[in-house]
């Protein structure tokens, strides 16, 4: 594959990854919301049951449903951040390819 075609291919990958970032960003935000809402409900429930709020936080986070939601949030965040890194790596590759094309074009002009 020549450099120009490789550049075009990387630009397509970048576009697809940016679209994917939108999706994973929403999923991460939803997972965060789900966790925070469930945690707040559980904390209120435990407070109503007479637990000290400082103790209630530890108890609530240890409940399987709350822990599962936190796991989902962390997982979605990791995917979102991996997509960001992929975008940055692809942008760097594009920049390198553009520089190679510019060098080749410059040397042909001489």
Would you write up a description of this structure?
The protein is mainly α. The protein contains three helices and no strands. The chain has one domain (3-105). The chain starts with a helix and ends with a helix. The model has no long low-confidence stretch (mean pLDDT 94).
Describe the structure using short key phrases:
single chain, mainly alpha, 110 residues, 3 helices
What is the helical fraction, as a range of percent?
over 70%
**Helices and strands, in N-to-C order?**
HHH
* Distance, first to last CA: 25 Å
Give a quick account of the main beta sheet: strands, pairing sense, barrel closure.
none
| Secondary structural class | mainly alpha
Alpha carbon gyration radius: 23 Å
Number of strands: 0
Q: Helix count?
A: 3
Which runs of at least 5 residues are low in confidence (pLDDT < 50)?
A: none
Mean model confidence by pLDDT: 94
In terms of DSSP E residues, the strand content is: under 5%
Q: Please indicate the count of domains.
A: 1
Shape: rod-shaped
């Amino acid at each position: 594959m020549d450099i120009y075609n490789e550049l075009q291919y990387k630009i397509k990958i970048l576009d697809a990854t940016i679209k994917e970032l939108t999706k994973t960003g929403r999923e991460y935000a939803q997972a965060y919301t789900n966790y925070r809402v469930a945690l707040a409900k559980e904390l209120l429930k435990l407070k109503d049951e007479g637990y000290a709020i400082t103790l209630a936080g530890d108890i609530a986070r240890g409940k399987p449903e709350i822990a599962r939601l936190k796991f989902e949030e962390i997982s979605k965040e990791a995917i979102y951040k991996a997509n960001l890194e992929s975008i940055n790596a692809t942008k760097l590759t594009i920049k390198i390819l553009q520089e190679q094309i510019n060098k080749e074009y410059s040397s042909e002009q001489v």
